Amino acid sequence: MMKYLIVSDIHGSLPALEQVLAFYREQQCGMLCILGDILNYGPRNGIPQGLDPKGIAERLNAMAGEIVAIRGNCDSEVDQMLLDFPILSDYTLLVDNGKRFFLTHGHIYNEDRLPKGRFDCLFYGHTHRWKLERTEHTAVCNTGSITFPKDGNMPTFAIYCDGTVSVHRLDGSRLKELSL
């Protein structure tokens, strides 16, 4: 049984990423799904605590075989030059035990602009506001941001394992869970 950790909007913060990776190892996850905005903090954000794009690249490159990554609106071809795993796709479809997951950053596809096709859960980030709910057609999980959460939210990421999606704080505590 594979356990997936899904994270978005790292924006260059090495301390935030290291907290997520500690949880990833502790929980014995098998795949890290990164939904974009990995290295660059973006022109509309402040400079994050522990800004270290090269340090992030080193940590993630060491586990490149365990990563599926999507391009965010702050990711570029220059970022790809630092990373040993592909990041330039706008989305990917992941299938686990018959469950279909649409992974995207959120600036192109999101719950208001759903892609065509059938999937059990839409995972995205971009807004920096976590959400986990069931809609008429699918489940929706916005992982939030581990670096720049908005609207008073805390830094968050998601886990998928054995038919269940959950959203967690950086300390690993669970905020919400949804069975698919």
UniProtKB/TrEMBL annotation:
InterPro entries per UniProt: Calcineurin-like_PHP_lpxH (IPR024654), Metallo-depent_PP-like (IPR029052), MetalloPDE_YfcE-like (IPR053193), Phosphodiesterase_MJ0936/Vps29 (IPR000979)
Family: Belongs to the metallophosphoesterase superfamily. YfcE family.
Name of the protein described by the UniProt record: Phosphoesterase
An MF annotation (GO) of this entry: hydrolase activity
Gene3D superfamilies hit by this protein: 3.60.21.10
Domain of life: Bacteria
NCBIfam families named among the record's database cross-references: PRK09453.1, yfcE
Broad EC category: hydrolase
Essential cofactor(s): a divalent metal cation
EC number: 3.1.4.-
Provenance organism: Bacteroides ovatus
Keyword line: Hydrolase, Metal-binding
Domain Calcineurin-like phosphoesterase: 2-159
A Pfam family per the record: Metallophos_2
